[in-house]
Amino acid sequence: MTAVPAALEARSLTQRYGSLTALRGVSLRVDAGEVVAVTGPSGSGKSTLLHLLGGLDVPQEGEVWWAGTRVDTLDTQVRATRRAGQVGLVFQHHYLLDDLNVIENVLIPSRLAGQRDEARARDLLARVGLGGREAALPGVLSGGERQRVAVARALAARPATVLADEPTGSLDRANAQAVAQLLVNLAREERAGVLFVTHDDRLAAFADRTLHLLDGQFTDSVPALL
Ligand code: ADP
Ligand code: MG
């Protein structure tokens, strides 16, 4: 079999916090162009998994691969530079820089990756419903608007992989669906692999498949959430 590298691959990830085991040997693969949803109750390990997949933490056991390269063994700074160009992250706390305006926030990853692209940033802002707000400072935005800026920022550097932790958590129904559709379109148009965590079955329905995390392991006992 010819091996086309996955956009993202995790092999047997185990992560403990003291005596608590948050992940127990989790493996997954997201192909280019594919959208995968991860659901699971609070405390099941979803955010821990995303932090490992995004290379923000290093697993105690197991491996993380981005586009065919193992990254958990890389030097932290090397991994951060690679992440800027290869992996778009949307985390639960949006971490916008309050003294940079909206478009400069969106441009952070592409600038770090050495490919600042203002036209792309403007297009993404328009697609998340924030056209015309480029010059606004984050402090004047609502929580939902800040979340949409964070989504645009995650996509700005044309990442091969997008990881999003409850990317629609502060959004109303219409904006949540628009963001989910944007992630799907990105996967299809740009061949990105997308993995997003959600509590909302209606959003999981946008994904090609859904993985259900329970107590640090994937369970296949839960049927598709459609
Ligand atoms: P989820 O995102 O599904 O709610 P998390 O990955 O945040 O789950 O947490 C999984 C488990 O690990 C929970 O029991 C949580 O309390 C614990 N946990 C998460 N982060 C830490 C941490 N930094 N220190 C100690 N325990 C943690
Ligand atoms: Mg979480």
Automatic annotation (TrEMBL):
GO cellular component, as recorded: plasma membrane
Keyword terms of this UniProt record: ATP-binding, Nucleotide-binding
Presence of keyword Nucleotide-binding: yes
SUPFAM superfamilies assigned: P-loop containing nucleoside triphosphate hydrolases
Presence of keyword Nucleotide-binding: yes
SMART domains xref list: AAA
Transmembrane annotation, as ranges: none
Superkingdom of origin: Bacteria
Domain annotation ABC transporter: ranges: 8-226
One Pfam family named in its UniProt record: ABC_tran
Xref: PROSITE patterns: ABC_TRANSPORTER_1, ABC_TRANSPORTER_2
GO MF term set: ATP binding; ATP hydrolysis activity; transmembrane transporter activity
UniProt cross-references to InterPro entries, sorted A to Z: AAA+_ATPase, ABC_transporter-like_ATP-bd, ABC_transporter-like_CS, ABC_transpr_LolD-like, P-loop_NTPase
Family stated for the protein in its record: Belongs to the ABC transporter superfamily.
Protein name as catalogued: ABC transporter ATP-binding protein
Annotated organism of origin: Deinococcus indicus
Species classification: Bacteria, Thermotogati, Deinococcota, Deinococci, Deinococcales
